[in-house]
């Protein structure tokens, strides 16, 4: 039976009235049907003892906690190193990293209208949802879940106007937060507005709901209808998924992936390399192979963005190269197409390799358009986790100001 959605006004009232401050109508429906509960208080996790509850409460008072009963069911509580546990359960070490930046990629500097970012010529980001199906402990946008953050805008009027006036933009990424946390009616209206801009050729969604709450897709045929209607032979919709570990690909998730593929959506995956979650070649190759097998080819792996509270997830670039290259030996050519990149404030930097003296990079996309494709090298530094580590006094890396950078001749 199709889920009936109330008017947006009513849904908004329910959101405001919900105990945890945000409960769109589809969540109420799915929750009732599947006995799915959202959990925002660590004390509601029975597998943790009183002492753990107390310690983790101190962490969640600083960096919010949110998950749901389905995602918790994927954790093996007998394994203290369980990867899902690391992704979503707070860790006291987060409080040892409170001086790092909250906005590692300086997204505030590329915000051109409420909820709209424009960094690379052809691409605009619309940040429209202020919530995710869970909160990843390593999240690089955790600031948007904090109070008083206004980078997300549920009203996209100004974003649409900006994109209409910038004909060089030919693709849009709908993100946040997770857009699929919005009501289906809202998603439909946003898609219609994007489809009404003639120069927007490609639309992407960024989502981790296939890992956090795959029931969102299984239990809402209306959502699938909306996506199918807007993903047609002339212009498909891409869904960029966010699986970090093979344990997130449950049978429920497989069904949801299958339904999306059958409705004509194209799926690709991106994940950061995360210490203790997926930073070894076997774990990564298992993830890549499984994703490819089920129709979600790996697209990017990311260097973990250094964001307040996530230092314990960082893996040095040199070690990531080793892990990535070894993982690639065990996968097919399709999975090997993925690129290893870092979303730095100056641009998306592809990480190519190293030798005895240098580490090699290339701007996959650059904030300064002329540098897109620019090859460069930096002195080898085995403990560097971010390009700013090559800068004096912790300044932000740029090709123009880094004293040790050497540019390749021409572009690649
Ligand atoms: S899914 Fe993405 S935006 Fe949401 S909490 Fe995780 S890392 Fe952050």
Structural descriptors:
412 residues, alpha/beta, TIM Barrel, 2 domains, 13-stranded mixed sheet, two-stranded antiparallel ribbon, 19% strand, binds iron/sulfur cluster
Topology:
Blueprint: H1 8-17, H2 25-34, E1 38-39, H3 50-60, E2 67-68, H4 69-72, H5 83-88, E3 111-113, E4 116-117, E5 123-129, H6 157-164, E6 171-176, H7 184-195, E7 202-206, H8 209-212, H9 215-218, H10 221-230, E8 237-241, H11 251-262, E9 266-272, H12 281-293, E10 298-302, H13 317-328, H14 333-336, E11 339-344, E12 347-354, E13 358-366, E14 374-379, E15 406-411
Parallel strand pairs: 5-6, 6-7, 7-8, 8-9, 9-10, 10-11
Antiparallel strand pairs: 1-2, 3-4, 4-5, 11-12, 12-13, 13-14, 14-15
Helix pairs in contact: 7-10, 12-13
The protein binds iron/sulfur cluster.
**In the CATH hierarchy, what is the class of the largest domain?**
Alpha Beta
* Distance separating the two termini: 54 Å
Find the structural class using helix and strand composition: alpha/beta
> Any idea how many domains?
2
What does this structure look like?
With 412 residues, this protein is of the alpha/beta class. α12 links the parallel β9 and β10. The N terminus is likely disordered. α7 runs parallel beside α10 and α12 crosses α13. It has 2 domains: 340 residues, TIM Barrel (Alpha-Beta Barrel), CATH 3.20.20.70; 67 residues, no CATH class. It has 14 helices and 15 strands. The chain starts with 7 loop residues before the first helix and ends with a strand. The site of iron/sulfur cluster has 8 residues, from loops.
């Amino acid at each position: 039976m199709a889920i009936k959605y109330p008017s947006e006004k009513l849904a908004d009232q329910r959101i405001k009235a919900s105990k945890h401050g945000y409960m769109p109508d589809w969540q109420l429906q799915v929750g009732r049907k599947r006995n799915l509960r959202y959990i925002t208080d660590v004390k509601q996790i029975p597998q943790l003892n009183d002492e753990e509850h107390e310690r983790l409460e101190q962490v969640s008072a600083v960096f919010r906690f949110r998950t749901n009963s389905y995602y918790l069911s994927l954790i093996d509580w007998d394994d203290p190193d369980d990867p899902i546990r690391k992704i979503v359960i707070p860790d006291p070490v987060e409080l040892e990293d409170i001086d790092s930046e909250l906005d590692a990629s300086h997204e505030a500097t590329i915000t051109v209208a409420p909820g709209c970012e424009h960094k690379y010529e052809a691409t605009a980001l619309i940040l429209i949802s202020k919530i995710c199906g869970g909160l990843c402990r390593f999240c690089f946008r955790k600031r948007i879940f904090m109070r008083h953050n206004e980078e997300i805008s549920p009203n996209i009027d100004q974003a649409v106007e900006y994109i209409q006036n910038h004909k060089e933009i030919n693709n849009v990424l709908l993100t946040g937060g997770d857009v699929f946390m919005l009501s289906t009616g809202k998603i439909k209206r946003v898609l219609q507005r994007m489809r009404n801009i003639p120069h927007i050729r490609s639309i992407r969604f960024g989502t981790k709901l296939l890992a956090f709450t795959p029931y969102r897709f299984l239990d809402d045929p209306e959502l699938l209808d909306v996506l199918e209607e807007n993903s047609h032979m002339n212009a498909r919709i891409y869904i960029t998924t966010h699986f970090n570990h093979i344990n997130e690909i449950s049978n429920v998730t497989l069904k949801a992936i299958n339904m999306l593929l059958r409705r004509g959506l194209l799926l690709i995956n991106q994940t950061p390399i995360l210490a203790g979650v997926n930073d070894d070649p076997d774990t990564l190759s298992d993830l890549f192979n499984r994703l490819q097998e089920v129709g979600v080819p790996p697209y990017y792996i990311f260097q973990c963005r250094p964001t307040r509270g996530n230092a314990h997830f960082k893996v040095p670039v040199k070690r990531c190269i080793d892990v990535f290259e070894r993982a690639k030996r065990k996968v097919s050519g399709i999975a090997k197409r993925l690129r290893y990149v870092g979303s730095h404030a100056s641009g998306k930097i592809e990480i190519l390799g190293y030798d005895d003296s240098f580490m090699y990079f290339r701007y996959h996309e650059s904030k300064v358009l002329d540098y897109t494709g620019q090859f460069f090298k930096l002195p080898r530094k085995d403990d560097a986790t971010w390009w700013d580590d090559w800068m004096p006094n912790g300044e932000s890396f740029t090709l123009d100001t880094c004293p040790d950078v050497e540019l390749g001749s021409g572009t690649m």
